[in-house]
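The pair is listed for reference:
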Amino acid sequence: MENMIHNNKMDITFLQLGDGPALRGFLDVFIDRINAAQDKSIIGVAVVPVDSRARLLYVQGDGRYATYSTGSRKSLHSPEEREVTSIRRTIDSANWEEVLLMANEPALEWIFTDVSNMPAAPSKGDNPENPRSLAGWVASFLHQRYRIGYSGMKVVCCENIRSNAQLLHAAVRALSENWGYDTDFLRWLDNEIQFITTYIMRNSMFAAQRDDGKEKFILVTEGFNKWWVELKTLPPLLEKIQKSGADIIQSATWKEYEQYAYLGLAEKPATR
């Protein structure tokens, strides 16, 4: 069966691995805003582990969902309700052969990761045909991309773990060696894949809502829009996300994020 994205003649630009709050309700929304302001849409595919009814509804809805964001302090944008359509297809991670077909997409340039309910490091039983961890997902997908002959990609890590990109790169490399991938691929991995460390502090909640007798996927999320990025110069897509309203803090460090996340949000009592 033909891919619906191909039928609509839309190029897939990014792949999302996981369904953490940095992806659902943050990146999805800001990319959706970009699409509303330009002719050519930036289109993504999401790979998620289906382990709940809400996630199943999300997959069945091909990535379209309603989001309700809150806002209360000056650091938060206004409350917002919108239908998010930047993800045009979702794939259950258990269908890994289908995921690997996405490696054929010529315009694919970005991978965004945020895993919330699965291991990031290699797991027992990880294998290229059925990876069970974030490192396994990335290693298997990038190797397929390499075999096809495409150039490198940018892997943007959004998990709130210190040095997340360096840790993921090391785990992917170690797993690739363990799987017997050749030295040319390892060299390609080190030289042509850019792993980018970022942190997003955000909470969200999956929910299922009945509308006209049917269930649909919704997401309730904070209206927080800060994004710490360990880059001096932003690539074009991140520049567009910044212009669409994301408060991107460049050349950020874990210490800066940690100080804000755990100390900066506390409001000082008013003086009289």
Summary: DSSP finds nine helices and twelve strands in the chain. Residues 1-9, 72-76, 265-272 have pLDDT under 50 and may be disordered. The radius of gyration is 19 Å. The longest strand covers residues 204-211.
